Amino acid sequence: MTNNTSGLAARSSGPEAQAADRAAARAAARPVRDGVALGLAVGTSGIAFGAAAVGSGLSIAQACVLSLLAFTGASQFALAGSVAAGGSLIGGVAGAILLGSRNALYGLRMTGVLAPRGARRLLIAHGVIDETTAVTLAQPDAASARLAFRATFATLYLTWNLSTLLGAYGAGRLGSPQSLGLDVVGPAAFLALIWPQLRAGRTERAVGLLGAAIALTATPFLPPGVPVILAALAALAGALATPAPEPPASEPPASAAGPAPAEPA
């Protein structure tokens, strides 16, 4: 009996069990790793916003407050661009609200995943943006999704605000942010994140190509950020074109099916 027990313990701690433990550890760490990596990559583009905001006439304090309270890059760039072009503050705020309205749609989807309660809903709503939504919905289960959201939100919020401060202080000294390549960090990181989804099937690739075509066509004619909203029509078209899955056939209850026949002895 002792030999059998020791043999079983040895097998359970063998190479196969250790490999399974390592795979489980990697799977558990993946939501945090993905969230931190994307947060750091996208957050550094806050340098571009800080420099653009101060260059448009905003003060350092105003640029930092925008990042703290608005925390949505497209809306912040739109407001700074409106001020730089000499537009009214009301028009700039209206455009920023229009661009930020997509986050409300994200919130409808994220509520069922994150299940926020009480006062935490305000904090969670503040963190529902493009990047946190993408990382959260890419996870295989609810627990991983909540962990990914917290990691992405915390990393991106901290990095974005610190980068905004750095860019605002360094405006006029670093040169054009575009010359440093900071304007492509966000799109490149986002593309890397959704790449596995684009490889999943023909429908996903068709939606991605249609969305890109809509955005590229609308970019020369519409303000920054609006083409992104229009590109969401591709996802709607894909949803309408994909047939809904049929519900699984329900098995009749045991009472309706009658007693099971007795097996011969």
Task: Please provide a written account of the structure.
The chain has 265 residues and is an all-alpha fold. The chain has 2 domains: 19-175, no CATH class; 200-241. It is built from 14 helices and no strands. The chain has helices spanning 2-12, 15-43, 46-55, 60-69, 73-84, 89-100, 102-114, 120-126, 130-137, 142-169, 185-198, 202-218, 226-241, 254-257. Helix 5 runs antiparallel to helix 6 (89-100) and helix 12 packs antiparallel against helix 13 (226-241).
How would you summarize the topology of this molecule?
Layout: H1 2-12, H2 15-43, H3 46-55, H4 60-69, H5 73-84, H6 89-100, H7 102-114, H8 120-126, H9 130-137, H10 142-169, H11 185-198, H12 202-218, H13 226-241, H14 254-257
Helix pairs in contact: 2-9, 2-10, 2-11, 3-4, 3-5, 3-10, 4-10, 5-6, 7-9, 9-10, 12-13
List keywords for this structure.
about 260 residues; mainly alpha; 14 helices; globular; disordered C terminus
The helix fraction, in percent, is over 70%
Q: Which structural class matches the secondary elements?
A: mainly alpha
Question: How widely separated are the two ends?
Answer: 35 Å
Mean pLDDT: 75
Short summary of the structure?
By secondary structure, the protein is mainly alpha-helical. It is built from 14 helices and no strands.
